[in-house]
Design brief:
The chain is mainly beta. The chain has helices spanning 64-69, 161-166, 184-196, and strands spanning 8-17, 21-27, 40-43, 46-54, 57-63, 80-84, 104-113, 118-123, 137-140, 143-150, 154-159, 177-182. The chain is globular, with a radius of gyration of 17 Å.
């Protein structure tokens, strides 16, 4: 489990296409400290498994399902990525419960800078809109954020200078894709309510 508090901006150093999968090599001195084969690291909000680890780099295999559902397929050598290690039991939950299981992708629609923060408008797939509410939590490229405004096909978030400086949302522009993970608690509540009404969705 992750919390959506990005530990560092990493970089893609190699991409190998394997037919129905891809292998990425990524640099991240913080998240690779003490890393071992089989460990989990979230890359732009996608939970990946460390295959190899050498120095400040690690490799991870990404299967077709993940490439289809997320924006990882658009990564190239030199792409910057948000990196986070799983939270330790007993550690502070600085963001919210994040699984690293991307529900879909959105697109940066608009950026409105102000003196001390920036409002970013992001498109929202119709299938996910019911899980996104004003002042609720959402994960964008692995970043735990609070929804400012929720529409039927979009939502907005307000980014503080720290988020702009230390994550990919500081440089992404209109048209760029982002990974979205909605609040898992909302999905469980929906499932339980549906079961109680005699339906299974």
């Amino acid at each position: 489990m992750f919390t959506g508090i990005v530990e560092e901006l990493g970089e893609v150093t190699a991409v190998e296409f394997l037919g129905d999968a891809s292998r990425f090599r990524l640099r991240g001195p913080v998240v690779t400290e003490g890393a071992q084969h089989g460990d989990s690291i979230a890359v732009n909000g996608v939970c990946l498994t460390v295959v190899e680890h050498e120095g400040d780099e690690f490799t991870a295999d990404v299967m077709a399902e993940t490439l289809d559902r997320s924006s990882l397929g658009a990564l190239t050598i030199g792409s910057r990525v948000n990196l986070e290690r799983p939270t330790a039991v007993g550690a502070r939950l600085g963001g919210h419960i994040v699984q690293g299981h991307v529900d879909g992708t959105g697109e940066i629609l608009e950026r409105k800078p102000s003196e001390n923060w920036e409002i970013v408008k992001i498109s929202l797939p119709a299938a996910l809109s019911r899980y996104v509410v004003e002042k609720g939590s959402i994960t964008v490229d692995g970043i735990s954020l609070t929804v400012v405004d929720a529409g039927p096909d979009h939502f907005t978030v307000s980014l503080i200078p720290t988020t702009l400086a230390l994550t990919t949302l500081g440089v992404k522009q209109p048209g760029d894709p982002v990974n979205l993970e909605v609040d898992v608690i909302a999905k469980y509540v929906e499932r339980l309510l549906a079961a109680g009404q005699g339906t299974d969705r």
